[in-house]
Amino acid sequence: MGTRVITLTLTLTLAATGIGGPGTSAAAESCPSGHVALTFDDGPVPAGTGAVLDALRVRGVQATFFVVGSRVAAYPGWVVRAAAEGHAIGNHTWNHEQLTRLSDAAIVSTLQRTNDQLAFTGIRRPTLVRPPYGAHSGRVDAVIRSQGWIPLLWSVDPQDWRGGSPPAIASYVLGRLHPGAVILLHDGIRRSGITAEALPAIIDGARARGFCFGVLDDRGSVVPPVRGPAQNVSALAGPDRFATAVAVSRAGWPTGAGAALLVSGERFPDALSAATLAGTVRGPLLLTPERGLEPAVAAELSRLRPAVVYVIGPLSDAVEVGVQGLGIGTVRLRAQDRYATSTLLAESATALGAETSTVLVASGTDFADALTASAVAAATRHPILLTDPREDGVRLAAAVARLGARRTIVVGG
Fold first, then answer.
1. How many domains does the chain divide into?
2. Which of 53, 73, 180, 374 is least surrounded, with the fewest CB atoms within 10 Å of its CB?
3. Tens digit of each residue's pLDDT (9 = 90 or more) over 34-50
C-alpha cells in the first residue's frame, strides 16, 4: 500500500506542474488585440510571491515566474503553489548571477542546479532561461542553447524595481502593450508589494483594450493558458516498487547522475531518512531487495554511470558487490538501527553541504509523518532524524547538537 500511495502522489504532482503541454485552452474569451504575458522575476519569497499570486488568482490570470534556484530551495512551497495554480515556471539562475561574467561551465552549472532543484521540488525542468539583469551576449546565448534551453528577455519593462507608484507602473505597461508583449515585473524584491498593487489596474486595463493574458510556452511564445486538468499526463510506474523507482530515476535524471542512493525496498525507514542526502548530492534514490541487487536497478545504474553509489542500511554485501561489479564506487552507510542510521545519513549529508540550521524530526515507528517530511527534506536539504517515542530523547538531543541545528521542527505527533 505504501508504494502505491507514493507513486500516485508523484504522478499527480508531475501532472499538475507539467506546464507547457497540451491541455484545455481558455475558451470563450474574446481577445481581439491578442495575448500578452505577465512575467515575474527573482522569487520565490513569501511576501512578494504570495501577494502577486493572490492578485493573479482574484482575476483569474496565469503568468510565468522566472525563479532563483536558491530561493526555490529556501521556499519550495511558493513555487509549488504557483505551478499548481497554472503558472509557468522559468529559470533565473541559482543565485541571480550575471551570466556575462561567468565561464561557459559556470553558466551551465548555475542553470542546471536550478533546474535540478525545481525537479526535486516536483516541478518539471523548464527550458526557458531569463538572464539576470538582462545581461547576455552571443556567447551566453550559445551556451544556453547548447543545453537545449532558450534564452528569453522581455518587451515591456516598467522598472518596478527602481520606483514608481502602482498607478505609474500600470500606466507605463498599458501604454506599451502590443500583441505578444512580454511584461517584466518582479515578485522577489522589496517593492514587490507595490507591484502586486499595480496588477488589478494592469489586468483590467489590458482586458478593456481587448488583450487576454497568456503564458510562455517551451519556445518562449505567448500562448493561451491551459484551463482545467492537463491532458498530457504521464504515469511513472512499473510492475513493482523496484521498477517504479527506476521509472522515476529515468524521468528525473535523463542524462545521468553524479551520485545515486540504494536503499531497501522492503522496509521504509532508511528510504525516508535518505531524502536529505539525495537532495544534497542531487541523485536518484533506488530501491532493491536486501538479499541482492535487482537486475532492473543494475541496468539503471549502468545507464546513470554515477561516480558513487551510497549503499544504505541493512542491504546485504551482495548488493554492494553487485554495484562494484558495474565499475562504480560505493560508500557504505549503515548503523545498528533505523534511528542511528538516520543520524548517520544526516551527518553524511551535512559533510556534503546539507543545510543544518534546521532539523526535521519525525517518528520512526510509523511512515506517514516521515514520508511527508522527506519531501521537504529533499527540497531544502534540511536533515531529517527519526526518533523513537519510547525513548527519553537523549539520543535525539545529542544528534541535533552534533549537527549544530538552531531550529528543530517536529513533524506530526
1. 2
2. 180
3. 999 999 999 999 999 99
Q: Is residue 106 part of a domain?
A: yes
Q: In angstroms, rounded to a whole number, what is the distance separating the alpha carbons of residues 59 and 198?
A: 13
pLDDT bucket at 235, cuts 50 / 70 / 90? low
Half-sphere exposure in the Cβ direction for 247 (13 Å, CA): 14
Is 186 among the residues known to form the active site?
yes
Active site residue 217: no
| Rounded Cα–Cα distance for residues 111 and 113 (Å) | 5
Single out the residue of 368, 281, 381, 378 nearest to residue 331, CA to CA: 281
The three three-digit cell numbers of residue 396, written as one number: 535525539
Longest dimension (CA), the chain: 70
Element at 28 (helix H, strand E)? none
Model-level pTM greater than 0.85? no
Transcribe 218-271 into DSSP letters.
TTS-EEPPEESS-S-------SSHHHHHHHHHHHH-TT--SEEEEEESS-SHHH
Residue 61 has a pLDDT of 96
Domain span holding position 117: 10-227
Q: Are 355 and 406 in contact (CB under 8 A)?
A: no
**Strand 24-25 and strand 226-227: pairing?**
antiparallel
Which of 24-33, 81-90, 365-374 has the weakest average pLDDT?
24-33
Claim to verify: residue 59 and residue 194 sit in the same structural domain: yes
Residue 236 lies in a domain: no
Of the residues 41, 42, 116, 270, only one is catalytic, namely 41
Residues ≥6 apart with Cβ < 8 Å to 6: 371
Angle between helices 46-58 and 76-84 (to 10 degrees): 10
114-139 pLDDT tens trace: 998 888 787 889 999 999 999 999 99
- Active-site annotation holder among 186, 217, 270, 369: 186
